[in-house]
Amino acid sequence: MLHLDMYHLLVLLLLCSSGLQAEGEHTSRESFRLVGRPSRCAGTLKVKENGEWRPVYGVFYSDWNLKTAAAACRELDCGSAVSVEEREESSVRSVLWIRSDCVESGSTLRKCVVSGPPYSILDITCSDLLLQPNISVSSSMDGVSEAQQQGFQVFRGSTFNISCSIQPQYPGGSFQLTFTSSNSTHNSTHPAVNHSAHFLFPAAEPAHQGNYSCVYQLYIFSHNFSSESHLLSLTVSGKRTVYRFGKDDWSKLSRNDQLITCCFWTEAVTCYIAYSNQTYTKCLMARANNKVK
């Protein structure tokens, strides 16, 4: 059974050698991969040998399989090993193993890699199976500002919606929206429909101010998996006042007869119209002159 031990020793050495290889040599990701499933962090373990991808076979000594799975997940940046299974595959003509007599003769491990009859091959599932979900916020007209360095701002009383989504990998699952403020934490869960979920807030209040994140949850391959988005910071501004200008006032700045809207916060003055500085100045002047509300 020496060839089995040396074979798995080669696998472990190759998986752990990426940080020690010289420039120009293959990294672990180029030498090993998991294939056969929608995620790159699950599937059949294969090793690249002489330009060809070959399956890695398992052994009855399960500790070797677990060590191989753990090393594969770690070196592929897929977290930790969740499960490893040995699966017989009749379509596999040959697999790779190590000749024990070759190793005993003093040759390097790479020179002792040979093809052998197909044993069971390894199917590995890693903890980072899922992609990272996305989180975004939208609001009613004039109700959400541009993204600020610290996050997003919405007007008090405006309707806003937080959306969670993820790139398609597996069907089903659910999204949990987690809200954290200075003194509380709340969770709300919606099923994933077309790989997304939407959480509606009818009227923004100071109590909605805080950090939000989306957690995608999925039960698959007899295990529970989850993946969390980045944090979205939301602040709620004071009461909104809207000033509208008629045709005569607007014609001083443009030949267009459209209306413009300026929004003024109680804490600060901001115009949410993407025009020139002249338009912005006109809005401020209108506020000072108590133009029509």
UniProtKB/TrEMBL annotation:
Signal peptide: 1-22
Disulfide cysteine pairs (residue numbers): 102-112
Keyword Signal set for record: yes
Domain Ig-like: 133-233
The entry's keywords: Disulfide bond, Signal
GO cellular component: membrane
Annotated Pfam families: Ig_2 (PF13895), SRCR (PF00530)
Highest taxon, organism lineage: Eukaryota
UniProt keyword Secreted, yes or no: no
Record-linked InterPro entries: Ig-like_dom (IPR007110), Ig-like_dom_sf (IPR036179), Ig-like_fold (IPR013783), SRCR (IPR001190), SRCR-like_dom_sf (IPR036772)
All residue ranges annotated as the SRCR domain in the record: 32-140
Protein name: SRCR domain-containing protein
High-level lineage: Eukaryota, Metazoa, Chordata, Craniata, Vertebrata
